[in-house]
Amino acid sequence: MPTTAAPRPHRDDVLIAAAGLAGGLLMWTLGLYTYSGNQPRGGDAWLSLLPLTAMAGCELLRRTAPRFALVAGTLVLSADFAIGSLLVTVLMFTDLVYAAVLYGPKRLIRVVPVASVLSTAAVTATALVLRPVADSLLIGIVGALVSVAPAFTGVVVRQHRDEAAAERLRAEQTALLAEMDRREAVGTERARMARELHDMVAGHLSAIAIHSTAALSLDRRDGPAREALSVIRENSVQGLSEMRRLIGLLRDASGGESGPAAVPRLHSLDVLLDQMASAAPHARFVLRDERPADAPPPPAPVELAAYRIVQESLTNALKHAAPGEVPVVLEQDAGVLTVTVASPWATAGADGRPGPRAPGSGSGLIGMRERTELLGGTFEAGRHGDVWRVRAALPVKGEA
User: Fold this and answer.
1) pLDDT 10s digits, 354-393
2) Are 243 and 289 in a shared domain?
3) CA angle 119-125-127, nearest 5°?
4) Got the DSSP string for 254-286?
């Protein structure tokens, strides 16, 4: 069976461990211990190097395995106090507490500060029983500096980092939405211009070309009038050709075809979901087509309305939903096509999830409701537990 290689220590962790080991060796050489009460004597002086080396090894795991490094470091620190404590060993333990809160699982944010406070209180209470009050208070202060202070420092730093990451994500999503809105607005305007040119200007040019051709066919006599009609016809035909080329350019630039735009179909929803997925890395769009295989295709107006409802619902999910799965379900039964889109409800506050990434005006829901009611269907949208659900039932038979 293939085995997964253990993650390599981070470069900064290697430097910290090496610096701690070198500093501890220097202090050991000079005989600088944390306090003289348990300083090893004679040939046992080398024993204090064992906790120093083990603590340096724990520093190598401060980022890749912070929980294990903290537990092992706590045991090593106990041995260090029993054998002969070096200040560098204690300082490296404080870094392990800080790193466990900063890089460890989120559960450690709650566990480590509480455990550090309780352990410091327990050590202080024990010292009050065994030692004078002044010494006990000093022990409590040192314990707080060794465990409580780095734990709460790690909590503050991690909270700031998480907030900064959330703000960066929010800014990126807002910029992405703004760019999508800009492109959509430009494409819509180009398409409108192409329609106007096709329906009005090109129509007038076509009429001029047709009538000038008819006039030339009726009057075959040479003269200024015929020459003028020939110029009119030639320029109108040339202008019409240029106008068609311009219309094609506008439609191509707006993402359409050079010919008449096709009505979106439900079978192209997978393409729409892929486009939305590329713009929303925080969401997973899933299409579930549960219509019977022998179900007749819906009429074009119904299919267009269903496509637009899904498109608007996905856009709303991109703007407002929390990270998670967004299923799009199509059902057809008893002459009714049902479209359902559910997205995770985004709230800001106690649960830690971010709020909406962009403000909404509510016009999207109004548009979807109007599309549905124009076809004689029913529309509902609202929160159901932890999801926001949009559901439209469109009749595929009868008056629709």
Assistant:
1) 444 444 456 678 888 888 888 889 999 998 888 899 999 9
2) no
3) 105
4) TT--SSPPPPP-GGGHHHHHHHHHHH-TTEEEE
Q: With 0-12 CB in 10 A as exposed, 13-18 as middle and 19+ as buried, what is 216?
A: middle
Say how far apart CA 338 and CA 317 lie, in whole Å.
19
Nearest-angstrom CA–CA distance, 99 and 151 = 9
Domain extent, residue 370, equals: 266-395
Q: Are residues 156 and 39 in the same domain?
A: yes
Of 193, 226, 253, the one marking the end of a domain is 253
Q: Is residue 259 assigned to a domain?
A: no
Last residue of a domain, one of 139, 169, 199: 169
Q: Is 223 in the same domain as 96? A: no
- Enumerate the β-bridge partners of residue 380: 391
> Which residue has 């985004």 as its token pair?
346
Over residues 6-22, the mean pLDDT reads 85
Q: Same domain for 87 and 24?
A: yes
Number of domains in the chain: 3
Per-residue pLDDT tens for 209-223? 777 777 777 766 777
Q: What is the pLDDT of residues 171-225, one digit of tens each?
A: 888 888 888 888 888 888 887 777 777 666 766 677 777 777 777 777 667 777 7
The residues pairing with 333 across neighbouring beta strands, listed in sequence order, are 336
